[in-house]
């Protein structure tokens, strides 16, 4: 049986002083929609999809929105920074100031439950009824975006977090026969690559290390014990967690210099400078999309993939969804965006570019080839575990506490302190 994680609530710390990359819409206080020079009403769409790869998916969905809605213009309020760390901080300040964007991206699960419980979102049940959406989204996914039977967002995709990306030529040169299946095999492979003078494991900014940690926890503990970490009374001080964190510390010994974000770290693999990178499947869009937005790399030659070591058979999942914040200036425009995001056409335009599979069950499967065909197959047959870094398993204060501990560990390399810090974070935040 599929194992969906129980979600929890948030109150996020606000961080001021960040600006949206689109300019103009972020600081408006008027409660009526802004118009562009042609008199069209703006719809402010807030996300963090500005970088190579991810922006392509958004552009594909934007095009459909604009074609279908000639009276609206899409205002791109995306804030740069993978995983949305900066975007989410700015969003919180906008929500607190009562100047929300017309719609924003939030992760299904604990993160979204936080916005719901804080009273930030409008109930979208009538939209679900109108478009018969309950029939097209997996019931367990709808559960993650609902509270007391009311549904609060429109999921556009399913992403996989536990993907091991690797460069086949670098592995061959190091004498590594194929993708390592266990943590032990992974460490042995990292050692072989190190001996050849290449970067064994590329990493990006700090959040990418928490991203790595979730795959190592899953690969070390197994699915049931991983999922149990987020239930009330979970034991983060167990010897099994100690072993998992020792594995994490060992693997981190092989990490290269931290890159600015996930894209430059992934690029080291595609360029043959590094052997491995553990990153979500948005990396596929980046590797595969043509050079205007991606790297235009050759699948199976420049890059290849496998489940992160020890995690085969489990989909460490997350889902991007769009919301209707209370007080949106252009509520009708936001609903028009949500209709596109919910549609088969919108999802089939967005996901092949984004490197994700559609949340809808009735998408055109022929569009999902190569890595994405594997993802579709695994999604329908694997066990499920919820991502930590991307909003499923833990709420935002808990994630902030985990990130803080990971940040401290990068300096101290102290496994014992990391375990105690993670245990304290769970005690303080689990609900
Ligand atoms: C995740 C998000 C993905 C992708 C990734 C890297 O949190 O769900 O869609 O954008 O961050 O930025």
UniProtKB/TrEMBL annotation:
Major site of localization recorded for this protein: other
Keywords linked to the UniProt accession: Signal, Transport
Subcellular locations according to the entry: Cell envelope
Signal sequence annotation: 1-20
Pfam families: SBP_bac_1
CC annotations in GO: cell envelope
InterPro entries: Bact_solute-bd_prot1, SBP
PANTHER family xref list: ARABINOSE-BINDING PROTEIN-RELATED, BINDING PROTEIN COMPONENT OF ABC SUGAR TRANSPORTER-RELATED
UniProt function note: Part of a binding-protein-dependent transport system for a sugar.
Family: Belongs to the bacterial solute-binding protein 1 family.
Identification of the protein by name: Probable sugar-binding periplasmic protein
